[in-house]
Each structure stands twice: as C-alpha cells, then as structure tokens.
C-alpha cells in the first residue's frame, strides 16, 4: 500500500473546465484552446494521496452471507473506491478541426503535431476553428475496429478542457491534483418534537437528505455550510411529504443532546396546506420536488410533492418568495423530460397540470440518416422536428456499423440542428460508414434557458467516471460519453445543485435499431 501511495504523489494541478468561459459566454474571445488528455483509474481510497483530484467515489458494502461480524450493523462501508486521473500522452488519439459541414480543415496527432506536448496537452489556435465549426477527438485502440469520437462545436469549447483517454497512455505514475470537493463532516443531531413524535424529522444538506421517524439521534453529513433541519407531516391527514417545520442551521448547532427548535407551520413565518396540482400531461417517473435556494449555500431539499392528483406544501416567507424552485422528471410524447422552474408565487399555490403541453416543444422523429446538401459526406442525422421550439443546445450520439465489424460511435455537442451534418475524417473507411443504417442514436435538447453556465454543465452532464475508467460505457449505458469532458466530483456536485435552482428544460430520446 505504501508503494501505491508513493505512486500517486502530487503533481502540478490542471486548470479544469469549470470557470473557464467559452466564446459564447459573454467573456472576451479566447485566443487558444488547451485540451489536456488524461486517463482515469479506479483505486481504493486508502491507496490515494490526499492531494489527488477525485472524479468519482463509490462506497462498497460486503453483502455476502459470510460477511457478518460483531459490527455488521454498522453503516460504515467495507471500502471506498475512487476515480483519479493521470496525464496521458494521447498517443492513440487524433484531433480534427472541421467546418460547419464536417469537412476536415486541420488534423493533429501526438507524433506529428508540434502543438501536442509530451505530457498530452494539445493547444489549438481559436481562429483556426471556423465559425460554427467543430473540434473532434477520435480514439481507436490497437486491434480494434471501433472508432470513438467526441465532437464539440466552437461555442462549446473552453479555454482549458480535460478529456479522458485510455490508461495505457499515462505519461507518469502521478495523479492530477486539485481540491474541488468540500470537506464533509459527520454529525448526530436531534430535533425538538414539539410535544408529539408523529412525523418525519431530518436534515437537508448539500450532501443529502437524512431522515427518521423520531427527532432523536439522526445521523447526517454536511459540508461547513448552512443547511435545513425539517419536519415533514404532523397529522395523519396531512398531504404526503408536506413540510411542517424548518430552521436554517449550521454544523455548530447540531447536537445529539440539544434538540433544535423548528419554526412550525401556521405559526412564526410559515404557512401550510398550499395547493399543489400535479402535471396531467407529464407522466412523472420520479417525485416532483421543491428545493429552496439559500445564498452562500445553494439549493436545499424542501419537500417532495405527490406525483399525481393534488397535494399541499409549506411556504416560509423568510426563505424569500423568489427562492422556491420545483423540479420534475417524467415522460411526455416519447421524450424523457427533466425540468426545473422558479415558482413565481409560492404563497399562492402551484398548478402544473398542463404546464408542459402549453409549451412549444420539438417532436420526436424516427431516427435515420438521410441525404442532405449541408454535409461534406452528404449525410445528415434526423432525430426530431423542431416545430419552432426555442432550443439552446443539443447533444447527439450516433452509432453506425458496416455489418463487418467496422463502426463509429460519435458524440456531438452542437447548436440545435434537426438535420445534423455527419462528419468527414479524411478516411474513406470511416467516411463511407455513413451510407449504412443506424445502430443507435440519442438526442438531448436543452431549452428554457439562455444561461451559459447551464450550457457548460450540459457538456459535462454525460460524464460517468466509473464507466470510463472501467471501460463499461458500452455495456447498455444510455446517455454516457466514452470520450468525455472529465469533470472532478466536487464540480459534478456543484453542477447538479445548480440545476436545482435555475430555470431549464431538458428533453432526451434514445433509439436502438
């Protein structure tokens, strides 16, 4: 173990995607794009230097029959696996600059390009990328007939980006360092039951929701930021999940022996039994959820809402009328839908019965490769009809095989294009693949926002560190990039939280032929 710890000594940290503006984000135009290639690796957390940037974490519990012991009731995991990154040469990669039709204008390899450094950083001159053009990175392993590709239109490119490649290309046995994760503290706290113990008591933190049927001795985890102590449901006829008490607190106030007194519904600044009408046009696959925004902290879980019919929720004026957000997830007209929207008048009720059908949305179309004049290879991919919808960004995944083993699996981030031009690679074998039928296609559409931050999050949303590190992204995983914009775990958490407190709508559709 000591040898492994020494293996991952700290090295110079990389500047990652978060916080780096694209040309469309309102900042000054960039002059260069720096693409740092890394390989991802799964290790036991005990074997990793504390300075290593973490890209994923997974707690492992031994559930075998012979794993029982005196402390088998403990909630502690048997081990924790983490994903770390190492700089990679990118020797198995090729990078292309392509124009808006997919025509290759520049080609780069680590062996032949002077702007591709020995430790795997490729520097591109921004002006070399045409307006509405693209940068594509492809990977083909020795002996393989499959080419993986990641394509980013110019408006999606960042000054500094980290892109994963393969483990065999590491330049040194050292980890990429960083500190994007906040320290998480474990505490046991109690909540005043106010004379009766009926209900669900708990804490809502940036780390999770921790609840029990008693206000006594609730275990929780939180970074050192403000969070919520809550009580949900107080009477047997209360709407399922309705919040009945709350208080914003800090870690210093959490104690097992000193119960936290809550502000209760229909007293203090809080009122309850506010009307909720669930969507009738959206089949919810997960509960609708209200989150509240706390300045300096982020979005915190407030309460769940009934998936069908009607229900009620609680409102506290001290939270601020503009700080309530509702998130829903479900299916509508073949789309998988994820939406967050601010509640405009939370004290007056919330009716989402026909909110989605009132919007102008694109329509799912049968995915197919069709002839077109806007592509260098004469082929475009059609996955939807836009019908005049106001769209912000698009992710497209396309998999095509010639039936003899040769195939391409490409992810494309672009402006919304119902007919998306397919790409040339100056390789007749690959270019001719587009004349074959589709194997798999996916489309993800972002709308309901003009936020450059949401658009940047969209580019990183399909990164699965374990799927990449363990090479399992082809094992039935949907909406998972193989070549990905690698994003540290702390940034992933921040991104997920941001989407709970900003207006956006995302539509997704997957089709296997």
Q: Any idea what the radius of gyration is? A: 25 Å
Structural class: mainly beta
Strand order of the largest sheet: 5-4-7-8-27-26-29-30-22-21-18-19
Which regions have little confidence, pLDDT < 50, spanning 5+ residues?
A: 1-21, 69-73
Largest sheet: 12 strands, mixed
**Strands, count:** 30
Shape: globular
Overall average residue pLDDT: 90
Q: So how many helices? A: 5
Please report which band the strand proportion falls in: under 5%, 5-15%, 15-25%, 25-35%, 35-45% or over 45%.
35-45%
Tell me the distance between the termini: 47 Å
How many domain regions?
3
Fraction of residues in helix: under 10%
Region (Disordered): 59-79
Biased composition (Acidic residues): 61-78
Question: Would you give an account of this structure?
Answer:
Residues 61-78 have a biased composition (Acidic residues). By secondary structure, the chain is mainly β. It has three domains: 2-64 and 74-143 and 159-169, no CATH class; 185-351, no CATH class; 363-512, no CATH class. The chain is built from five helices and 30 strands. A twelve-stranded mixed sheet has the order 5-4-7-8-27-26-29-30-22-21-18-19, covered by helices on one side. A hairpin with a 3-residue loop joins strand 18 (283-294) and strand 19 (298-305). The model is unreliable at 1-21 and 69-73 (pLDDT under 50).
């Amino acid at each position: 173990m000591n040898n492994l710890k020494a293996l991952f000594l700290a090295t110079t940290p990389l500047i990652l995607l978060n916080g780096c503006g694209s040309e469309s984000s309102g900042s000054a135009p960039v002059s260069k794009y720096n693409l740092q290639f890394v390989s991802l690796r799964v290790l036991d957390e005990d074997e990793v230097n504390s300075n290593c940037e973490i890209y994923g974490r997974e707690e492992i519990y031994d559930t075998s029959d012979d794993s029982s012991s005196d402390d088998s009731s403990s909630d502690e995991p048997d081990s924790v696996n983490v994903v770390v990154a190492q700089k990679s040469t990118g020797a198995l990669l090729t990078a292309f600059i392509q124009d808006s039709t997919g025509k290759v204008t520049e080609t780069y390899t680590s062996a032949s390009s002077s702007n591709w450094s020995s430790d795997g950083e490729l520097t591109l001159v921004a002006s070399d990328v045409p307006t509405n053009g693209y940068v594509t990175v492809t990977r083909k392993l020795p002996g393989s007939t499959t080419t993986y590709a990641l394509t980013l239109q110019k408006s999606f490119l960042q000054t500094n980006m980290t892109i994963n490649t393969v483990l065999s290309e590491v330049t040194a046995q050292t980890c990429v360092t960083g500190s994007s994760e906040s320290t998480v503290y474990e505490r046991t706290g109690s909540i005043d039951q106010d004379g009766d113990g009926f209900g669900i008591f708990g804490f809502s933190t940036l780390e999770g929701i921790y609840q029990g049927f008693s206000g006594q001795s609730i275990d929780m985890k939180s970074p050192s930021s403000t969070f919520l102590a809550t009580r949900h449901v107080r009477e047997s006829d209360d709407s399922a999940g309705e919040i009945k008490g709350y208080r914003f607190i800090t870690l210093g106030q959490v104690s097992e022996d000193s119960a936290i007194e809550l502000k209760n519904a229909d007293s203090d600044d809080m009122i309850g039994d506010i009307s909720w009408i669930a969507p009738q046009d959206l089949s919810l696959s997960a509960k609708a959820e209200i989150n509240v925004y706390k300045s300096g902290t982020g979005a915190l879980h407030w309460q769940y809402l009934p998936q069908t019919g009607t229900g009620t929720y609680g409102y506290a004026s001290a939270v601020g009328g503009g700080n309530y957000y509702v998130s829903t997830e479900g299916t509508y007209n073949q789309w998988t839908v994820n939406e967050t929207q601010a509640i405009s008048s939370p004290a007056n009720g919330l009716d989402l019965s026909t909110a989605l059908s009132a919007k102008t949305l694109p329509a799912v179309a049968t995915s197919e490769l069709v002839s077109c004049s806007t592509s260098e290879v004469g082929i475009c991919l059609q996955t939807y009809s836009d019908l005049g919808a106001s769209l912000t960004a698009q992710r497209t995944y396309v998999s095509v095989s010639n039936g003899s083993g040769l195939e391409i699996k490409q992810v494309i981030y672009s402006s919304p294009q119902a007919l998306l031009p397919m790409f040339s690679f100056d390789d007749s074998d690959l270019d001719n693949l587009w004349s074959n039928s589709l194997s798999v296609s996916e489309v993800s559409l972002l709308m309901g926002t003009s936020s450059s931050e949401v658009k940047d999050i969209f580019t990183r949303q399909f990164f699965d560190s374990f799927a990449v590190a363990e090479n399992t992204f082809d094992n039935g995983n949907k909406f998972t990039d193989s070549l990905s914009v690698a994003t540290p775990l702390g940034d992933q958490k921040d991104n997920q939280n941001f989407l709970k407190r900003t207006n956006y709508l995302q539509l997704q559709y997957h089709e296997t032929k």
